[in-house]
Amino acid sequence: MAHLVCRDTDALYDHLAERVGPLPGVMGAETAPITRLVKRAGTLLPT
Predict the structure, then answer these.
(1) CA–CA–CA angle 21, 25, 27 (5° rounding)
(2) Structural domain boundaries of the chain?
(3) What are phi and psi of 9, to 5 degrees?
């Protein structure tokens, strides 16, 4: 099992296709993208 943080799904695909796929013995991979908002730009509202 491995965990990977990517900026978007294109970056995830590139990593899997270019780095993981060519590894000897790798026959396939299952992915489960989990989207999470880490930081959001904007103005803070007074409470």
Answers:
(1) 60
(2) 1-25
(3) -65, -30
Per the listing, tokens 């908002």 go with: 37
Q: Using CB atoms within 10 Å of the CB of residue 16, give its burial: 0 to 12 exposed, 13 to 18 middle, 19+ buried.
A: middle
pTM (global) more than 0.85:
no
Q: Give the tens place of pLDDT for each residue, 5-43.
A: 888 889 999 999 999 999 999 998 898 888 777 777 777
Q: How many helices (H) and strands (E) does the chain have?
A: 1, 0
* Neighbouring residues of 16: CB distance < 8 A, sequence distance ≥ 6: 29, 31
